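Worked example

This section walks through a single chain of length 464. The input is the sequence exactly as stored; nothing has been trimmed or padded.
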Amino acid sequence: MKAILLIFLASLFLMPEMALAAEQAHDAAHGDKIDLTPHPAAFFCLVVFVLSYIAVLFEERTHMRKSKPVMFGAGIIWVTVGFMAKDYDIDHHVVREAVFHGLEEFGSLLLFLLAAMTYISALQDRHVFATLRSKLVQSGLNIKQIFWITGIMAFCLSPIADNLTTALVMGAVIMAVGGNDPKFVSLSCINIVNAANAGGAFSPFGDITTLMVWQAQKADFFEFFALFFPAVACFLIPAVIMSFFVPQGMPWAMKQREHIKPGGKMIIFLGLLTITMAVSFEQVLGLPPFLGMMTGMSLLMFWAYYIRKISKNRDKDFDILQTVAMSEWDTLLFFFGVIFSVGGLTFVGYLELASTTMYDGWGASATNIALGFASAIIDNIPVMFAVLSMDPDMSHFQWLLVTLTCGVGGSMLSIGSAAGVALMGVGRGQYTFFSHLKWTPVILLGYVAAVWVHFVVNSHLIHD
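Given that input, the structure is written out below as tokens.
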């Protein structure tokens, strides 16, 4: 905090330079593209963004939830942008439009994830995951077999649902099966994050980033399936290596057999129906997926009402609105801070500068591979949001490459994807940023293999 205040105060002593910068950029402010980067306070925005992310990295030690610093940083960035806009004589409506553009992006993401998280909480309440754990234990599977089954299920489910929902489901199973074994929980969560991100990379509905690319019409629906073999390589190589370090033994002993509570099987069906509606609304009707998710959530609310009416006293408190309150709000607010911080830096002009430096200077392939590493630090959603904002002129091969790298690159760090961020909440204290960081070199091998397979298998798309 002291560092932020010192930087801000230092910028106040640069008023003459600010005036000169405003004069130099006055024409740009009234043109097609706004460039505020010459303003000294622009660098302050960049510093705030970096400091807020450093605070996130130290969440495990400070015990301060990750949403707080990024939300605060987003607010500081946009306040600074507001003052810079006055120096550049930029109309208030231009700034407001930029803010509301970010709100549109965040609102769509919020409603989609809120519906998904509500379904997960409802399934937990109906003991669906506890019953799954019970069946896994009773089937005689050992810890290593469960490690592989949850990873394969995550890879196969994420293209149908999405990587966040899949990770939450599999994470709940892992905690139910071996929550008393930190090493097993950590390795399994890393495997699930990597598998879910890899599986979500070859489907428009598997990840928010792939959905964004598809909605932006940068690739056709069936073109995403060209990433299947790169995704398989990305999942299998780290999974094979990590499997040698999974502890031996059986899941912890169960005192009693679990059963799905009344209404649980219907909630499973409604969940699948909700996913189908989200897909159909987008593909058939051209409506945003979150509308299908919220419609499905309303069906869940009706069903919860029915359960309360027909049940005895034990289910009188099954209220979906209470379930909504139990959602991972720290995760949802974290994305608010991220999207609005990136939006502020976009308005300042840093993304335009980055596009010119990287895509025009380094070339599309090197840039798109590098962005995979960036997504591990910044999170893949804002990175893809930034790329789409840059809108570089690229072939389908390159758009698929950046979709792949941003999707699976986020697996290198726990904060690099929605799946990792969510599982840090599920496995709090056992799956952490630093426990994931120990296996980053292994995940990197899968990342390199995925990129190599893409260049080998999909080379025919380079000139498309």
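What to look for: Residues 1-90 form one domain.
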